[in-house]
Specification:
The protein is of the alpha/beta class and about 270 residues long. The chain is built from 11 helices and 11 strands. The strands form 2 sheets. The protein has a 6-stranded mixed β-sheet. It has a 5-stranded parallel β-sheet with strand order 2-1-9-10-11, with helices on both faces.
Length: about 270
Amino acid sequence: MTGAVVITRPLAQALPLAARVSALGRQVELLPLLEIEALPEPAALLAALARLCAPQPGYKMVAFVSPNAIDAAFAHIKQWPAGVRLAVLGEGSRAALAAHGVTPETVDIVSPADSAHSDSEHLLQTLDLAALQGQPVLIVRGESGRELMADGLRAAGAVVDVVPAYRRSVPTLTPQLAATLRRLLSQQNDWIITSSEALRGLCALLAQLDADYPDAAQQNPVVLMQQQHLIIPHARIAETANNLGFSRLTLTGSGDERLLAALQSRL
């Protein structure tokens, strides 16, 4: 085993994992492949949150698709309304809720029964969908995203509002980022990839790297990246990786504990 552990999550979610990876004795490289930005005009979010926090709450349940969605919404929420259920996908979102003072002791929080599969499909399987028939449900997510949760809830008869809370974007290829990518590709590393969107963005950056910052001494950056080892928590991301030409994959299941166990097995 050589090289570093490259953590590609947005910075806010990367830092806690980085500390735990360092505790294993591994060198850590932070390479956020998605930048999280507030929406310039969050009118739809503010209107939905006003309805949620009205004296008579306007939603029976609120589903947050990510910790970023939680942080963006709670910037405008003073107190969680009594009696409104929360639905989240995994441990990162539960930790984000706890940071805002929302815990299972005070609020009904639902997440997938199998913590190894923190995704919309398994959340829908865990929810009592029959009880949501005719009920108003709010989904808070990024500016773009999968429609599976909204479609599943609507198919069960829920009345669903979907509002964006933040914007994701791939970082700009600066000379500094170009140099970092070249350096990371010069050795074998373990790359923690927790988003299909981030992996597609990385491949686009590497294609641009070869065009904008050519280096005759180094092989094609995309080919070099395809030779790296990826640690991936979800089969859907693994499918994206396979389609992009990656073959050195470790599929762990959701949650930082499983990511860390996969790294520990490589010590």
